[in-house]
Amino acid sequence: MNDRLARLTLMRLAEPGDTAMGALVALRGPQAAVALVREGAADADLTRWFADTHGRPAGGPGPCDEDSGRYGRGSDRGGGGAGVPDGVSGSVSGAGGGRRAGWDGRLAARFDRMVASWAARLRTADPERDLAEGERIGARLVIPGDAEWPSQLDDLGDSRPHALWLHGDADLRFSCLRSVAVVGSRAATPYGTHVAAELGAGLGERGWGVVSGGAYGIDGAAHRGALACEAPTVVVLACGADVAYPSAHQQLFAAVRAQGVLVSESPMGAHPTRPRFLVRNRLIAALSRSTVVVEAAVRSGALNTAGHAVVLNRQLAAVPGPVTSDASAGCHRLIRQGKAVCVTGAEEVIELAGTMGTDLAPEARGPVLSRDRLDPESRKVVEAMPTRIGMGPATIAVAAGVDLETVLSCLGGLAAAGYVERVSQGWRLRADRPFGG
Amino acid sequence: MNDRLARLTLMRLAEPGDTAMGALVALRGPQAAVALVREGAADADLTRWFADTHGRPAGGPGPCDEDSGRYGRGSDRGGGGAGVPDGVSGSVSGAGGGRRAGWDGRLAARFDRMVASWAARLRTADPERDLAEGERIGARLVIPGDAEWPSQLDDLGDSRPHALWLHGDADLRFSCLRSVAVVGSRAATPYGTHVAAELGAGLGERGWGVVSGGAYGIDGAAHRGALACEAPTVVVLACGADVAYPSAHQQLFAAVRAQGVLVSESPMGAHPTRPRFLVRNRLIAALSRSTVVVEAAVRSGALNTAGHAVVLNRQLAAVPGPVTSDASAGCHRLIRQGKAVCVTGAEEVIELAGTMGTDLAPEARGPVLSRDRLDPESRKVVEAMPTRIGMGPATIAVAAGVDLETVLSCLGGLAAAGYVERVSQGWRLRADRPFGG
C-alpha cells in the first residue's frame, strides 16, 4: 500500500482532526499507522509513546480545556477531534504508582479502545474505490509533499489533515498564498451579506483570495463577491467533495470549481455533522493569512474559526455593526476583548493580513474646508463676522477678541479671497460663502 | 470689586478657554487681572512671566500643535482659546540674542496687543448688570471654592473657566460625581439617536448622570433618555445661560432645568460661535468620568470632545455602527486607533467609567444548549444518530468513531434523558428533539 492509499484509508478510519491518529502518523508514517489499526499489535515503543502523550500527571485528570484549541505534538488529548472535547478524560487514573513503567491496565485498555474504534471502520474503507470515485467526479487528491499542498497546514500539528480532496481549476497553494478567511453567521442580516460581498469583492480586486466555508449567509456572500471580481476563492467543505453541502449552493459550488477550488479533508460521500463543521473551521483559519468575522452572534460557529485563527497566530479582525443587532454581538465582543482588530473595509483587512508597511490602508479622513487653510487670526475674524448687517472693524475686533490692527490687516486678504465683503455699514460675510458652513 | 464681580468681568474680557488670561489669574488672582487690563501697567514680574511662558526658544517659533490640546500652567500658548490655534505664533522672534533680559521689543508689543484686545471689551463689561440679569432669569453663579463648584475642572489648568452660570434645580457637583458624557453628531441617523437615548436611559436607570451639549441629534437624544428615567442631566452650553441655543430645544432645556442643570461659562447674552463650541467641549469632557461617542463622522465636533477626554485622562469609549454608515466612521476610527474602547450598551460604559472591579458589565453570552451538558462521548453518539430510520449500536459506533461498548453504555442514558428512542430497526434521534438544532 503506497502513501496515497494509506492516507486515503486514514481519512476513513479517523475523524478529521483526530490528534491521536495525527500523532501516530507523525511517529510512524501513514502505512505503519494503517498496519497498526489492522493488526492491533502495539510494541513497547508505541505503548511508551501513548503513555507519554495520554497519561495524566499524578493527582488525577487535569482540567480538560479543549476549547482553547491547542495544536501540536505531545498534547495530552485523547482521540477526539480538534475542537471537540476529549471523550476520555475521566477514564485515566494516572496515579503516581501505576505509571512506574509508563503503562498500566487502564491506559492499556484506553489504547485498545482507541485502536478498536478505528478498526471498526476498517471494514468499510476501500481506498481504491475512493480514488476511482474522486477521478469520476474530477477531483484530485493532494498529500503533504505534493506541489499543491499548502504547507501552512503544518501549523496544525497533530490535527493536520492526512490528505485533501480538491475539486476545481485553481491551484490551492497559490490561491491561499495571499488570502483572507471571511466568515460569519449563516443567519446573516442583509447588512452582513452586503458587507461580506463588498469585502469579498474588495479583496478580490486587490489580488487577495477569499477562503470560507461555502455556507448560507456570510460565507456565500463572501465567495460571490470574490467570484464577481474573477478572483480565486476557496470553499472548505465539512463533508465529502462529492457531497457539497448545502445542496442549494450547487450553482455557487459550480462557479467556485470553475474559478477557484473546493477543499475537503473528509472521505468521499461523508456527510456534514456538527463536529465536522467545527473541525473544518481550523482548516479555514490555517489556510489563510488572517480571518475576518463579518457577523456572528455571541454563540456562532464563526467564533470557533476565530478561536482557531488566534491559536494559529493568524491575524483576527471583526467588522462592527449596529449594537442593536444580535448578529453583530459576537464581533463586538471580539473587539472589546482585544482579540480582533476592528475593520471597516477590504483595505483595512489587507493592511492587517499584508506585509507590514507595504499594505497600509489610507486613514479615514473628512474633507478639508477652505476655512482650515486660513491663518489663525484671519479665522478668528471670519468666525466673528456678521452675516447680514455690516460691522465696523473696531466692533469686529471686540467680537473676535483680537486688536484693531489685526482686524484691519486681515480684512483686505479675506475680501480678496472672497470670504468677506464691504457693505454700506461696514463689513460682513459674503452670502455665497465659498468656505461652507 | 470682590472675587465674584472680578470673575464676571473676566468672563466678558477673555474668550472661554483663553489660557493666557487663565495663567494671569492663576498668577495674580482675578481682581489683579482685571486691574492690569484696566490700567495696562505691567511690572517687571509680569513681563518676566510673559517672557517665560510666551517667549519661544532660539531658532524661531516651534511647531504650533494646539490640536493636541495640552492643558496646564506654563504652556507656550498665546492668547487663543483652548482648542483654537494660537493666533500669534508668527509674531515672536525669540532670537537668542534678543532674549538676553527675557524681554525684547517684539515680545513687549505682543504683550501690549494681548492686553489691548482684553481692554477693548472692558467698556462693555458690567458685572453688576450681569449679576442682576442672572438673578432675573433664575440662574446662579458658581466660582472656584463654592460648594457646588466641580473640582474636576481644575484638571483643565489655565483653561479652567473663571466662573460658571448654572440654571436648573440639580446640584452640578453632585450630578457630575458619577456621570458620563454622551456626545455625537448633530446630523445623527435614527440608529444613532436610538442608541443615544437608550444609553442615556440605561445610565440614568443605574444612577449615572448624563453630560452633553444640548445640540440636535445625539446630544438631545442622550439628554432625553436620562430625563425619561428621572435622572439628572447636565447641558453644557456654548452660549450665555439666557440664550440657550438651539432655540428649538427650549422644551428640552426647560425639562433639564426642572430635573438637571444648564451650564455656561459664557457671559449672559453671548451667542454661540464655532470656536465657543469647540472650547465648550473641553468642559463636557472635564465634568464627566468618561466620554462616549455615539455617532461621529470622521470630521465631527464630537471627536474634538473625544480628544479633550484623552488629554484629560478620562476614559474614552465609542459605539460602533454599520460600516456602511459615514455617521459611524469617526467611532470606528477611534476604536481602530486604540483611543476608544468599543462599547455596546450602558453596562459596558459604566464598567469603563466606574470603579475598577465593582462596576463590571456581564459578558455577552449565548444560550446554553442542553446538548452542551452531555458528556463528550454521549455527545459524539448523539451527533452520529440517524434521524429517521433506526440504526444498530455497531453502526452507530462506526459513525460516531467510538467503540461499541461506549455506544451501549451511552444509549440508555440518552434514552432516559429523551434524546434518542428505540424503534424497530434499532435506535434513532427523537423527533421532538428537546436539545434543539
Automatic annotation (TrEMBL), chains A, B:
Gene3D superfamilies: 3.40.50.450. It comes from the Bacteria. This is DNA-processing protein DprA. Pfam families: DNA_processg_A (PF02481). Residues 67-76 have a biased composition (Basic and acidic residues). The gene is dprA. Residues 141-352 form the Smf/DprA SLOG domain. Belongs to the DprA/Smf family. InterPro entries: DprA (IPR003488), DrpA_SLOG (IPR057666). PANTHER family: PROTEIN SMF (PTHR43022:SF1). Residues 52-100 are annotated as: Disordered. Coiled coil: none annotated. It comes from Streptosporangium amethystogenes subsp. fukuiense.
